[in-house]
Amino acid sequence: MKITIIGTGYVGLVTGACLAEIGNDVFCLDVDPRKIEILNAGGVPIHEPGLQELIARNRTAGRIQFSTDIAASVAHGDIQFIAVGTPPDEDGSADLSYVLAAARSIGKHMTGFKVVVDKSTVPVGTAQRVREVIRSELVTRGVSANVSIVSNPEFLKEGAAVDDFMRPDRIVIGCDDDVSGMKAREMIKRLYAPFNRNHERTLYMDVRSAEFTKYAANAMLATRISFMNEMANLADRVGADIEAVRRGIGSDPRIGYDFLYAGCGYGGSCFPKDVQALIRTAEETGQRLHILESVEQVNEQQKQVLVGKIVKRFGEDLTGRRFAVWGLAFKPNTDDMRAAPSRLLVASLLKRGASVVAYDPVAMDEARRVFALDLAEDPAALSRLSYVDEPRKAAAGADALVIVTEWKAFKSPDFLHLKSQLKTPLIFDGRNLYDPPTLAEHGIEYYGIGRPEVALASQAGSADVLA
Question: Which residue among 329, 423, 430, 453 is least crowded, i.e. fewest CB within 10 A of its CB?
């Protein structure tokens, strides 16, 4: 089948590459010539495991191409996927300007029937707006052509997106029940047939329900994370171990283990903006989503928890202190820094006069860019932030090590060597990677999230910092 993907961001590239992999003829469009130049030169503008190899293989086979030619992209695909960004607007609602611009381009150039698929995460009712924009352009041009709008939300985890697409747990399709909608349904069913050979994974529903499903799913996952973070903070106060609690409640099949890890807050491109957008959608209908408002509030507070532990240990004034930070991306296997907890933590340490030496396996370039923007008005603070190409170099001479992202490379360090590198054998573990008794055996002071603290009087230097 001939497929057009509008947008070569995270969702668009993964969708395009995976659909090409199963034999489709895919045309990827982007209005940013820089992205297209990178892709046509054999590069990939984002980090996603397996994606570059997948694109290279299908470019060689002639099944995927990249261009800025809008007219050619509309002419190419019988199915047009809109996979552009929907960043949060000033009030937290989803900014649909890119989605509607894509729809306008389709309407300006189409000459016959098209299936237009909303792949972007969009609020309920967006499909209707997309249809109206396209039809308005057709009327203006005096072209008699039909269009069917389908909602097909993505459920891709950054860091595992290729595998998620190729082996989906569900495929949600929202179609109209008119003649055009039934035709679109059959085309989409044919497109996704290779993913249903083992068993049927496709869930058909009306368009608005499909749009809502994506937001509801992300809201539920974000809720689980914030719930566990609140439980972890309470565990700190009552002397419980949140890891033991997690195993205890996760063993209940009604609850399960996924997304029950305590930490220093969620980030990325999905959960923060989707929770905000759902809250704003409810407000527009006159309803308040009290649980999600709390989820958002808890998450913002959770990003300060590590800073609070550091300040409790060292005091508010961190002038002259040096902190090693391992992990900058919001999660492993990505270079995505959007709403990453590291941004608030690093800025807070620098604001208090500390210096920070940071390391991340893949997000260094993106980190340099975002921190330059975050700290543009405080050049003195920015000058105290440096980057190294190995984790051990960050730890060398540091007053403490701070873990922010749970990269596999951080999970089993040589603790004796790490202790010898640190100026103070002290770890603040924002992802609960380490076992407190193991750290105690190695004489390393340790503070996790909702876990037993290992506070060594000989290392702390005074009783008041252990209070």
Answer: 423
Residue type, 174: G
Helix (H) or strand (E) holding 402: strand 400-403
Overall residue count recorded for the chain in this entry: 467
Q: What number of other Cβ atoms are within 10 A of residue 8's Cβ?
A: 25
pLDDT, tens digit, 9 for 90 and up, residues 297-311 = 999 999 999 999 999
Structure tokens at 352: 């208090």
pLDDT reported for residue 457 = 57
Q: Measured between alpha carbons, how far is 260 from 444 in angstroms, rounded to an integer?
A: 27
Tell me which residue of 150, 186, 156 sits closest to 168, measured CA to CA: 156
Task: CATH 3.40.50.720 in the chain: give the residue spans.
Answer: 2-205, 303-466
Task: Give start-end residues of each CATH 1.10.1040.10 domain in the chain.
Answer: 215-300
Q: ∠ CA(261), CA(263), CA(267), 5° rounding?
A: 100
Cα dihedral 31, 34, 39, 44, rounded to 10, equals: -110
CATH of domain 303-466: 3.40.50.720
Catalytic residue among 18, 28, 264, 270: 270
Please name the residues in contact with 145: beta carbons below 8 A apart, sequence gap of 6 or more.
Answer: 110, 111, 112, 113, 114, 138
Q: How confident is the model at residue 320, as a pLDDT?
A: 96
Long-range contacts formed by 231-234: CB under 8 A, 24+ apart: 231/262, 231/450, 232/262, 232/449, 232/450, 232/451, 233/302, 233/305, 233/449, 233/450, 234/450
Q: Is the confidence at residue 398, as pLDDT, over 50?
A: yes
Distance between CA atoms of residues 46 and 58, nearest Å: 18
Tell me which DSSP letter residue 289 carries: -
Strand 2-6 and strand 385-387: the pairing is unpaired
Sign (positive or negative) of CA dihedral 37, 40, 43, 47:
positive
Residue range 411-426: mean pLDDT, rounded = 96
Tell me the CATH number for domain 215-300. Answer: 1.10.1040.10
Taking residue 408's Cβ as centre, other Cβ atoms within 10 Å add up to 10
Q: Which helix (H) or strand (E) holds 209?
A: helix 207-238
pTM of the model: 0.91
Q: How far apart are CA 104 and CA 107, in angstroms?
A: 5
Domain 2-205 has CATH 3.40.50.720: yes
Q: Is 270 known to be catalytic?
A: yes
Q: In this structure, what token pair is assigned to residue 200?
A: 């049927």
Q: Which residue's structure tokens are 């001479």?
A: 397
